[in-house]
Amino acid sequence: MGVVAPNGNCVKEFWANVLAGRSGIAPVRSFDASRFDSQIAGEIKNFDPYPFFRNSKDVRRTDRFVHLAMAAAYEAVRQAGLDRPGEVDATRAGVIVGSGIGGLKTLEEQHSLLETKGPTRVSPFMIPRMINNMASGLIAIEFGFQGPNFAVISACATAAHCVGESWRLIREGEADVMVAGGSEAAVTPLGLSGFGMMRALSVRNHEPEKASRPFDRDRDGFVLSEGGAILVLEELEHALHRGVPILAEILGYGLSADAYHMTAPGPGGKGAARAMQKALEKAHLPPESVDYINAHGTGTPDGDRCETQAIKEVFGRHAYRVPISSTKSMTGHMLAAAGAAELVVCIEAIRSGVIPPTINLDHPDPECDLDYVPHKAREWPVRIAMNNSFGFGGHNACLVVGSWH
């Protein structure tokens, strides 16, 4: 597993801060945001992309979303021992890493050059820097993985779909190993203004660390964040033969569409409920077997309410017994990277027997009346965990992960 997040630049740091309830949200530092309604974000701190590229020119030729993906990929690939020459059949090792928005910073910079200096000053690398599939392509180039390679783009469900489709390819015999996840670097003037004009973002600028408030009565939108998160998936017998540590097992994957609205969730969370039900069906598990749910939980009024309704529909009375938390309360919303980072949280919860909290849950919304593990982490035996990811366009994805003994 590999993570670069607003509250941690590796899995160990990220997990420690998540358990401690430390927020990565702060005033925007990468540009002057004083004119914007929302002036806060989850930016990556103290990040140097150069160690993650063999050729320093490639850093200058690529967008920040690729830098974050490559950093997370390096951590995951090294942990899995895939950086050793000849470790696997390269033609059966693939990559599916997506980005919801891609090279937004590149687009802004190059459009400014076009307007001020003319078309001949636009970089010849503009297009490959922008396009969403470039993270997946460059990870494959970096490590020589010649198997299935593409990018899923499904907004905030991107990383979960990338992991799920990688799982499916391995199950179907198309690959032995897949590198999967997502990255996003949309904390730019255009990104902040675009989401802001949708009235999707929190404007609690005076209290950045308290701005992301999933399931709280006083929530006023999500906090825009950047990040990268990658996992290595491997066919079981192949991993056992290599003798590598198995962290967990992907048990089920469900997906659906709301078919309702561009940005609003479907009424009653029906689409989200179908994705959860399908993931449990694939895993051949009853709802009562789930010990922890990492919620999509962005902090938008409609989204949190609909997700709560969906959990109640799927889990029935067990909905009131299963602990649920939203780690977006600490990271903000990393968009395409969120699903993979939150799957890492599920796996670490299984491995440690500790569930991270939902911070800032000071005044629970009466319509969000489940156990969201407020304020402090909780020791809790977790054998099976569920991870929810829902994106603009009505895209829903759910992953079920279990312990491996």
Low-confidence stretches: none
> CATH H-level name of the largest domain... which superfamily?
Thiolase/Chalcone synthase
The total number of structural domains is: 2
Largest sheet: 5 strands, mixed
CATH architecture of the largest domain: 3-Layer(aba) Sandwich
What is the global morphology?
globular
Describe the structure.
With 405 residues, the chain is of the alpha/beta class. It folds into two domains: 241 residues, Peroxisomal Thiolase, Chain A, domain 1 (3-Layer(aba) Sandwich); 154 residues, 3-Layer(aba) Sandwich (Peroxisomal Thiolase, Chain A, domain 1). It has 13 helices and 14 strands. The strands form four sheets. It has a five-stranded mixed beta sheet, with helices on both faces. Helix 3 crosses helix 6 and helix 7 crosses helix 13. It is globular, with a radius of gyration of 20 Å. The mean pLDDT is 97. GO terms for molecular function: 3-oxoacyl-[acyl-carrier-protein] synthase activity. Belongs to the thiolase-like superfamily. Beta-ketoacyl-ACP synthases family. This is 3-oxoacyl-[acyl-carrier-protein] synthase 2.
What is the topology?
Layout: E1 2-4, H1 11-20, E2 26-27, E3 40-41, H2 56-60, H3 64-79, E4 93-98, H4 104-117, H5 126-130, H6 134-143, E5 149-150, H7 158-171, E6 177-184, H8 189-197, E7 227-234, H9 236-242, E8 249-257, H10 270-283, E9 292-294, H11 301-315, E10 324-325, H12 328-331, H13 338-352, E11 354-355, E12 378-379, E13 384-391, E14 395-402
Parallel strand pairs: 4-5, 4-6, 9-10, 9-13
Antiparallel strand pairs: 1-7, 2-3, 6-7, 8-14, 11-12, 13-14
Helix pairs in contact: 3-6, 7-13, 10-11
